[in-house]
Amino acid sequence: MSNAAPAAALVAEVLNKSYGALAVTRDVSFTVPEHGALGIIGPNGAGKTTLFNLITGTTRADSGRISLFGQDISGLDPRRRCLAGIARSFQVPQPFAGLSAYENVLIAAAYGRGLSEHAARPHAREALDLAGLTRKADTGAGTLTLLDRKRLELARALATGPRVLLLDEIAGGMTEAECGELIALIRRIREAGITIVWIEHVLHALLPVVDDILVLDFGKVIAEGKPDTILDDPQVTSVYLGPDDAETTEAEA
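Predicted structure:
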């Protein structure tokens, strides 16, 4: 049996992005292995969503390099990055409300894969099934519950055939029961062979899924490692709770 390390699915190398004097990402680097799952956490304004925009190409980095399975995709536009195998969900789902769930996913499959409507249909059905939305396929997207809109957001991303899926705070606004269903769904997606990179504030949703956590603060990586190690890191605690609260927590422990 081979003991070779898994191939790198996604590699970010010293990514920098500034708007005038404001540095939004500063020398951000990380590697996600194939079939792995990386969680990204940090306070509001840490640069997390900007990092996703750099990876998908909707924002261009000032410097740095992004590789997908060994291919440098830094110069590709967003659609070509999607065709290469990167998809993302958004924090606030914005489906085509006047179309059915199936029609929303069919559009994603056709445009995200560069297929005709006919050729895209089986991919749309497969994505709906994986996201647990088959029974709601004919339901108007604008009438879906929050959980089902989140499922639809995932189904649209899955329909593009991603090798790497970026999730942006998908657990926000969920009840405990809904969050449990979402965790089970994301685990199934990972089991299907898709690499996951997940930004999340709801840590108890993130922890059962990811292998490692990367922490951003003011656009800079301040910690990276296994979840237990990261959550015990005084610097990470200070970023989330503030220095005074962090010291109180340590004193009580």
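Summary: The two ends are 44 Å apart (CA to CA).
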